[in-house]
Design a protein that fits this description.
With 77 residues, the protein is mainly α. The chain contains 2 helices and no strands.
Length: 77
């Protein structure tokens, strides 16, 4: 009578998680990052140059939201 060993068992298939951001939002963030690296990205009110990558990402996601791309709502602090 054959016995099953641990190596003969199949591992459970990994679940693919749904994408959080749409491709359109990713393109918007990419554009903002390029502008930041060139020194052309300015902050909204003050007009100061943006040097922080996290801030550039936040600007890109905000603009993607305004354009109607699939982006989760902003975190409330």
């Amino acid at each position: 009578m054959p016995t099953k060993t641990a190596s003969s068992k199949k591992a459970p298939a990994k679940k693919k998680s749904a994408g959080i951001y749409s491709p359109a939002a990713g393109k918007r963030v990419e554009a903002e990052m390029r502008a930041m690296k060139k020194g052309q990205l300015k902050s909204g009110r003050s007009g100061k140059k943006v040097t922080n990558p996290k801030q550039a990402i936040a600007i890109g996601l905000s603009e993607a939201r305004k354009a109607g791309a699939k982006v989760p709502p902003p975190k409330e602090s």
